[in-house]
Amino acid sequence: MMYPEQIVAPMRAELTRLGVEELRTADAVHSTLKDARGTQLVVVNSVCGCAARNARPAVAMALQSGPRPDALYTVFAGQDGDATQAARGYFTGYAPSSPSIALLKDGDVAFMLERWQIEGRSAQEIAADLAGAFATHCAAGTSAV
């Protein structure tokens, strides 16, 4: 179900104001991720409550300090269907899930949070998981633009 853009615009902005780049087409996803090197955070955003209450706030908290991915991206499930499907194609071994958060390193999934690991947990717990993944997989002193 597609929601009117004026309803989802604030949900998109929760991530884009952090410097997360939206990938709204499959072409944008492929041209960005196909030969990517380093680390990329890819957030599959959603209108659901666990995205609003848990996933998006957790991403914001995790990006506040410490190592960060080289690049930050998002696709919006249920809104930008082709882009979401294309992004999920890079999450080898994981079933489609929204919201979800993938940390790719040189094109491979280094860390993944699926909906079942987001739903019912606090944003602080999820942020701690993300910060741990950043500390493990992202170079110290790097920051996404």
What are the defining features of this structure?
Glutaredoxin, globular, alpha/beta, 145 residues
What would you say this structure looks like, in words?
The protein is α/β, with parallel strands linked by helices and 145 residues long. 42% of the residues lie in helices and 19% in strands. A five-stranded mixed β-sheet has the order 1-3-2-4-5, sandwiched between helices. Helix 2 runs parallel beside helix 4 and helix 3 crosses helix 6. The model has no long low-confidence stretch (mean pLDDT 94).
What's the short version?
With 145 residues, this protein is α/β, with parallel strands linked by helices. Helix content is 42%, strand content 19%. The protein has 6 helices and 5 strands.
CATH superfamily: Glutaredoxin
Helicity level: 40-55%
Order of helices and strands: HEHEHEHEEHH
Q: Biggest sheet: strands, sense, closure?
A: 5 strands, mixed
